[in-house]
Amino acid sequence: MELTARRQRLLKHVVEEYVKSAVPVSSEVIVRRYETDVSSATVRNELAQLEELGLISHPHTSAGRVPTDPGYRFFVEHLMDAESPSPGEQRTIRHQFHQVEPDVDRWAHLASSVLSNAVQNAAVVTPLTSSRARSRRVALLGVHDTVALVTVLLHSGAVRQQILHLDDSAGRDELDRIGNKLTAVLDSQTAEGVARTADGLSGAERAVAAAVARILEQADQQAFEEVYYEGVGHVLSQPEFTYSHKAVPLIQALERGPMVGQLLSQAFDASGVHVVIGTEHPLEQMRETSAVLARYGHGDDIQGVLCVLGPTRMPYGRAVAMVRFIAHVLDLLVAASVADGDPAYHVDHKVGTADASTN
Amino acid sequence: MELTARRQRLLKHVVEEYVKSAVPVSSEVIVRRYETDVSSATVRNELAQLEELGLISHPHTSAGRVPTDPGYRFFVEHLMDAESPSPGEQRTIRHQFHQVEPDVDRWAHLASSVLSNAVQNAAVVTPLTSSRARSRRVALLGVHDTVALVTVLLHSGAVRQQILHLDDSAGRDELDRIGNKLTAVLDSQTAEGVARTADGLSGAERAVAAAVARILEQADQQAFEEVYYEGVGHVLSQPEFTYSHKAVPLIQALERGPMVGQLLSQAFDASGVHVVIGTEHPLEQMRETSAVLARYGHGDDIQGVLCVLGPTRMPYGRAVAMVRFIAHVLDLLVAASVADGDPAYHVDHKVGTADASTN
DNA sequence: GCTGGCACTCAAGTGCGAAGAGTGCTAGTG
DNA sequence: CACTAGCACTCTTCGCACTTGAGTGCCAGC
Fold first, then answer.
1. Any chain B CB within 8 A of the CB of A313?
2. Which residues lie below 8 Å from residue B128, measured CB to CB, with a gap of 6+?
3. Is A339 in CB contact (< 8 Å) with chain B?
4. Is A294 found in the same domain as A146?
5. Which residue among A295, A340, B67, B95 is least packed, with the fewest CB closer than 10 Å?
């Protein structure tokens, strides 16, 4: 009872046909559409073998075959074709990203939108974060008398700001001075570093440094809390969710950002595209959904996660290809916006997109 | 056939009971739970009158009564009690907002979260925007050599930024100079104003001004495009959406921000809380859902919209009360962060929340 | 090793009757 | 005149038996 080439082929047909039609696939259908040179009886014998191996199963005696989670796993590992999106599609997507290129905050949002539409499933994207947020530049803008806006440019290229109420009023020059000083003093510091350094400062500087520390802390926390998701409508349209109560746990997991974090953090263990199928999920509520994920970003420190989420009956090939491609596009964008002194990235970037100033 | 006091009372009972139970309400139930001093036959006679007036209806002969859209409308207009949330609840909510007070960007997100949980329905919130975005302060942060981050503080208190690729490299002093100059020159200008002014500038200044103009334009566009929503799970749990395909149009409307814009813009016509019921919706796809909306913000120019969205069978009283209360809380927050020179707002605000600097 | 043929199983649909909920109407009462 | 008791009527819902058809499993034969 080994996994002959023909059996593998049959498994592939079962998965692909089932993903397409959502109906358990019968020996008859396989013969008609794929393996025209043998009879349905032969196929049935082979399918029985695949079932014994635990790769496919029977909802009931008189029904066709459905892949099991291990079946999908084998398919993903050995059988699937994940060819890249078509050149036309690639161009469209690159173009969309190019349009929002100067607007770092919208990358993740756009990515979730593009991904969910391309794969017709839900997509989740975390914005770019450092594993530990570090300050790169601090600026202060006066809002009015005793209120200032503290803006911190993080090493990751993201920008965060907070309103700060000052004890005394401060002029613009004073604010600029503080901003410049803190930029220098706090350079590349993490939240704890800033807190430590703040002890050596005085008065207004100290208050601002405290705000910076809060911002960094929050950025650390937010890593997986603030996620963009889209395409819930696609998932609900799938036949496995005709009764919406089945979808409720999934949707609540999506809305409660942190729950997804646990899932997404898996993407950090390995590079490349990662597939999690049904019962392989650590989260109880996701035992009937699959995820295709990959990190994007730059280096080991500055990263985000892309994820496609849907029922286990999912077009894995397409999902993997799209996730891989979009991660690649984002990698280039990120590289271009990170101050790392490596000119190679700039070249890459200039090739892919035009300068904002030439718009 | 007039609307006597008793008939109004009965209509109120029908609406409240139906909202609670989701089951058509029978004369029997009304007698048992509300009007114990008359017989069910009497109630039936009265209900028949209400039906003739078009305020309630019959799914079929042997079923109880269900409110019609005009019935809900009358209820909302004349019968509903929208008492404020309990003091404890008010405190909890104020506390939550206080915690993110310095972080303008998260207000809308938090509002949608609080609202959807309190009313157990979906909630949509647009972030604060001016009807026309105006520049208040421009700052430039060097990212690396020829790349700078243009940060614009809008009159509304929101902050936007874009990456800008410069033609020539510029030092920090030069960037500061440009930032200060543009802050002065572009003060209170809209996108068109900035574009016009830019003609008089030269070189790098012009490029930055162009970026500012783009930022303002985008802020104008985004007014209703970028919405926060939450609580889809709650809506799907309602019995009217057991078959999820009924919920798909609603969810897609939510995900496609602009479609909701049409709905939300109604909130601007009138102040106070606005209720739109089922067929009153302009959007075809929302004919079975109701919305409770209000704007929040400061003055006529700086505003956002709060909205509860769910099936017509909705706890209107509770929804109106919560929307009103949260709009009020946000009003105070916004007032405190806007530079309008009116000290009254500051006093208000200091009462409600503590300074960030005293954390 | 493959195939045709056939018995078997089970889900899904159909028709029917009984039960139950709720109404509408009518005649009767204070 | 407003209210009520009572009852016939309607329509949904549920359970049940029956039929249909898809699809399998297996076996004998090539």
1. no
2. B104, B107, B108, B156, B157, B158, B297, B302, B303, B304, B334
3. yes
4. no
5. B95
